[in-house]
Amino acid sequence: xxxxxxxxxxxxxxxxxxxxxxxxxxxxxxxxxxxxxxxxxxxxxxxxxxxxxxxxxxxxxxxxxxxxxxxxxxxxxxxxxxxxxxxxxxxxxxxxxxxxxxxxxxxxxxxxxxxxxxxxxxxxxxxxxxxxxxxxxxxxxxxxxxxxxxxxxxxxxxxxxxxxxxxxxxxxxxxxxxxxxxxxxxxxxxxxxxxxxxxxxxxxxxxxxxxxxxxxxxxxxxxxxxxxxxxxxxxxxxxxxxxxxxxxxxxxxxxxxxxx
Length: 260
Description:
Helices cover 77% and strands 0% of the residues. The chain is built from ten helices and no strands. The radius of gyration is 17 Å and the shape is globular.
């Protein structure tokens, strides 16, 4: 069993705090930035992935609740007309797509080299980021078809490579006509439910969760959520859209850098 010194544990806690602050503020970056760092610390992929899924599941729910309390999003089951709110409907559709997309991805991932999968993810994320920046001053008409296609594509990516969900879902929602603040909060809830599916699959296959690593990731990530919630509340929507665009471009470049 991998053991942690106090200093290493605190270092991981701090990294989880920073990664989740970025993720809950911009809707992306937790697993993408944290996984390669944990690999450098000597952890094995099967220690990292289930622990990250657990921490993302808990913090995603906490972030969604925080964003709701601060008025960044409306996840009410019923609105004033008695219907489910659009924000909750989008999150549930994205989460439901994760099951179909992940299952489809498994069969393809078995026959495609890892290098090409990661190259595809990096190029796609980079393209979304650039498209957001180029079209940041344009208004996008909301489209349910684009939301469903986005959910399928993002979960397909996550099923094939384990990454690329947050940047694509957050950026894609903006391109589908969703407000930037709503997109960040919706991604938190959708990714949390997606991670729950992943956790169930790991447990059903006999793979356990490493509770040496998981508590540090979970505590660090949870502590950051209130700060990110207030950040999203105070920042202007146009500024948030710019930040999301630049962050998506950066994560796309970072993904390509890791494999090239």
